[in-house]
């Protein structure tokens, strides 16, 4: 298992997710065999520990609360960031500026992780950000087809 190295985001998102919070559930692409696609060709696929993703969500939640605190300013917060906090701070800042309506799970196929872990992540997102209107992800049809109907319904309800 790889060590948690702080909040992470992957290299791409759909154009429609420009205002979304990007949450990295796994790194790179588990398939990586499309001849027209070079994005992840030199990158090894790995699934992030679910507790690391939960920690990323908590980090964003904490920064959103601090950014919404009328007793401080983004500039003051930025000035006092601890080492390694910048990615979560900027992700929270941009998401707040974009209205906090949507979240995109990265990278190339978030449905390849254990469905129970995906549910845990989705439910944690909902508990921290009940106002989110849309949670989306890339996924291969093969990954979706391997999840049973009942679990898919639970995932859809949680998202
Ligand atoms: S599944 Fe998507 S990310 Fe993976 S190689 Fe194909 S096009 Fe690229």
Question: Outline of this structure?
Answer:
The chain has six helices and five strands; from the N terminus they run βββαααβαβαα.
Structurally, the number of domains stands at 1
- Overall shape: it is globular
* CATH structural class: Alpha Beta
What hetero molecules are bound to the protein chains? iron/sulfur cluster
The radius of gyration is 16 Å
Give the distance, in angstroms, between the N- and C-terminal Cα atoms: 27 Å
What fraction of the residues are assigned to beta strands by DSSP?
A: 5-15%
Q: What's the tally of helices?
A: 6
Mean pLDDT: 95
The CATH topology corresponds to: Transcription Regulator spoIIAA
- Class computed from helices, strands and strand pairing: alpha/beta
Low-confidence stretches: none
Question: How many individual β-strands?
Answer: 5
Share of residues in helices: 40-55%
Describe the structure.
This protein is α/β, with parallel strands linked by helices and 159 residues long. It has helices spanning 50-68, 74-79, 86-97, 115-128, 141-145, 149-158; strands at 21-24, 26-27, 46-47, 102-106, 134-137. A three-stranded parallel sheet has the order 1-4-5. A two-stranded antiparallel ribbon has the order 2-3. It has a single domain, classed as 2-Layer Sandwich (Transcription Regulator spoIIAA), CATH 3.30.750. The structure holds iron/sulfur cluster. Iron/sulfur cluster (SF4) is lined by residues 29, 31-32, 34, 37, 39-40, 108, 140.
